[in-house]
Every structure is written in structure tokens, then in C-alpha cells.
Amino acid sequence: MNEIASQGQLRLAYLRWALVTVPAIVFLGFLSGRLANSGFGNRWFASLNLPVLMPPGWAFAVAWTILYILMAL
């Protein structure tokens, strides 16, 4: 018994760390995007000549969320 923690305890500690750290990083990214006023709410972006086939703004949020979840898996 010269171990500080068992493998199961180390895995649980890593899981707890990941469950706190990953959402915090995602939230900071979301917050920086909101503070920068980028995207569909921006007057500069609204003044551009957008193509007819441009998807609605909510589609980008859904697509990026799905992409990041799939990359994590």
C-alpha cells in the first residue's frame, strides 16, 4: 500500500476536475463572444450584402455546439 490514491480515485478526481473546468472554459468563450458584440447582433454584420442562401443565426450556434460535442467524444 505505497500508493497515494487508487486508480478509481484518480479517475473520479479527473472526472470532477473535467466537469468543472470544461463548462467554465465554454462559458468564458461564450462570454467573450457576447462582450465583443460579434455575429448577427452587430450593426456592421447586418449592413453586409448577405447571400440569399445564408442560414439563420441560430443555426450556427446549433451547428458549432454539435461539432464541439462530437470533437470531445
Which sheet architecture does the biggest sheet show? none
What level of helicity do the residues show?
Answer: 55-70%
**What is the ordering of alpha helices and beta strands?**
HHH
Return the average pLDDT rounded to an integer. 84
Question: Using only CA atoms, what is the Rg?
Answer: 20 Å
Characterization of this structure:
The chain is mainly alpha-helical and 73 residues long. It has one domain (7-72). It contains three helices and no strands. The mean pLDDT is 84.
List its traits.
73 residues; mainly alpha
Q: Strands, helices and their partners?
A:
Elements: H1 7-36, H2 43-46, H3 57-72
Outline of the structure:
The protein has 3 helices and no strands. The chain is mainly alpha-helical and 73 residues long. It has one domain.
